[in-house]
Amino acid sequence: MSAFSWITQLLYVLSASCFVLGLHLMNNPATARRGNQVSTGGMAAAIAVTLAIIIHAGAISATGWAVMIGGALVGSGIGLYSARTVQMTAMPQLVSVFNAVGGGAAALVGIHDYMRLTSAGASVPTSTTVTTLLDVLIGAVTFSGSIIAAGKLQGVITSAPVTFPGARIVNLLLAVVALGTGGYLIATPSLLGLVVVIIAALAFGVSMVMPIGGADMPVVISLLNAFTGTAVAMAGFVINNWALIIAGALVGASGGILTKLMADAMNRSIRNIIVGGFGTGDAVAVAGASSGSIQSVAADDAAIQMAYASKVIIVPGYGLAAAQAQHEVAALADVLESRGVDVSYAIHPVAGRMPGHMNVLLAEANVPYPQLKEMDDINPEFARTDVALVIGANDVTNPAARRAGTAISGMPILDVDQAKSIIVIKRSMGHGYAGIDNELYTDPKTSMYFADAKTALTDLTSAIKTLVG
Amino acid sequence: MSTTLLTDLTIFILSLWVGFEVISKVPATLHTPLMSAANSIHGIVLAGAMLIAVTANDAVGYVIAFVAAAFAAMNVVGGYVVTGRMLKMFKRRPAAAAPASPASPASPTANGSGKGRRA
């Protein structure tokens, strides 16, 4: 091993260490920014080392340089523009698109290497074939799956689960074709065979994500993030590059953990989400005994109730994110705080469209993060709360989850029903994703305020100002 | 099984464990920035995409190299920028708090300031 290889390998290990340290600093909001900077530094070092390797080898053609630099510039431009301009509510889609291109790039690395080996006519070692196949399979599934997921979140593709009779058989067939052809390739290297694998994997990605409903997308994005990491690690095996293996494995593991945390918070297994069936007919239990009457409330009454409270807990949900009302809720909280009301936010782990998405939306609206309380911390406080203001959250507040035999039984919920009074801002009596009635709405302590979250919050804020200001 | 593959596998498996350990302590508040950060880290595939350009020697190879470089660069640049943008928002107190307090005497009675803070 030459001195040059020694140095470059060590620098790769150094940049990998930066990734680990960067993720570690993400443990705490106070150090998280530094973590991102350390990680960026590691990435810059890894790219610089790769450039040095290419120059040192001296084998690259002028066209090669042009293609590499041109591609990198085009990609950087698109990445920079979209990252700068994206709305925070559209973050999950963007992450999904980055997953797609990352997985696609990893698959292309494997494909190119395989083309090089087969065109040389040499026999391909089994280990290379296996890692290439895993790279291409996972990368291609991630690519098409992530694009579908982004499309569903953006509303370009219907967010409702899309299924048809025999969908599972098609899935199974695609998997059999991809894996079967892969098995054949181990014995007989063939570029055509790899093309079959790619097509089957792309189709599988589409058919895997299409039947999954919009509410499960956070889990799917997290899972696809882990897939991309794994595909990148496999690409690292193919071209024998430590930086790719370490970084890919890190992301694969972290994405896996996040996916599990998310799924646990929704009381669903990952298998359950991927295979489907939830909310598509067979699993929906009809909640009985929800014949209570509901009472609705107008802005003025709700405003007075909150203005004279001493403790208010705001429970933001998916509806708040969808209405992009994060700035309006922050304005309401400011008015209440200026009157001496103790305001905090109860954040359910699956609020928003991605794990922790609600925290980002509220941070964008300048809500200081110590006011954002996680479920286990805030639940004991509801009993001491005068008004719980629920904005567009449904299933995560349904007391039916504490009973057995409902579609959401066992799901951890926010104990909103323990508050002295409850105001629910909601557009209609429509069901949440679980498709069952929310018993909270018929609770005698609950007042329903039927309006769009953004309008309702603006009206509440101005009502407080004019009535009691 | 070659020594190279064995080394690579060892690195892979140990890195998986490091990933599990590092992530499992992160509070839910930071899950979205964290996913975004992890997302930018898999942009390391740019290093692999750059190396394609070295061995490419025909039109198909160059097209693959170009697309791979563009995809990976989009992942890495976009990922880091958007993560930074998100983390910049996490502050302990809102920046608006300072100008807000001198503003309240401007509307003397409107705020009910006589009551003061009950909490």
Structure characterization notes:
The complex is a heterodimer of chains A (469) and B (119). Chain A contains 16 helices and 6 strands. Chain A has 469 residues and is an alpha/beta fold. In chain A, helix 14 links the parallel strand 2 and strand 3 (372-374). The radius of gyration of chain A is 26 Å and the shape is elongated. The relative contact order of chain A is 0.09.
Tell me the layout of helices and strands:
The complex is a heterodimer of chains A (469) and B (119).
Chain A: H1 3-25, H2 29-57, H3 62-85, H4 91-119, H5 126-154, H6 167-187, H7 191-209, H8 217-238, H9 242-265, H10 270-275, H11 299-307, E1 311-316, H12 318-322, H13 326-338, E2 342-347, H14 357-364, E3 372-374, H15 375-378, E4 387-391, E5 421-426, E6 446-450, H16 453-467
Parallel strand pairs in A: 1-2, 1-4, 2-3, 4-5, 5-6
Helix pairs in contact in A: 1-2, 1-9, 4-5, 4-8, 5-6, 5-7, 5-8, 6-7, 8-9, 11-16, 13-16
Chain B: H1 3-23, H2 31-41, H3 45-55, H4 59-88, H5 97-103
Features:
heterodimer, A: 469 residues, Rossmann fold, 3 domains, six-stranded parallel β-sheet, 6 strands, 60% helix, B: 119 residues, 5 helices, disordered C terminus
Précis, in short:
The complex is a heterodimer of chains A (469) and B (119). Chain A is α/β, with parallel strands linked by helices.
| Pattern of helices and strands of chain A | HHHHHHHHHHHEHHEHEHEEEH
In terms of quaternary structure, the protein is heterodimer
Tally of strands of chain B: 0
Average pLDDT across residues of chain A?
Answer: 86
The H-and-E topology of chain B, N to C, reads as HHHHH
**Biggest β-sheet description of chain B:** none
Share of residues in strands of chain A:
5-15%
Net shape of chain B: flat
Shape of chain A: elongated
The helix content of chain B is 55-70%
User: Number of DSSP helices of chain B?
Assistant: 5
Rg of chain B over CA atoms, rounded to whole Å, is: 25 Å
Question: Helical stretch count of chain A?
Answer: 16
By secondary-structure content and strand pairing, the structural class of chain B works out as mainly alpha
Low-confidence region ranges of chain B:
94-119
Low-confidence stretches of chain A: 277-290
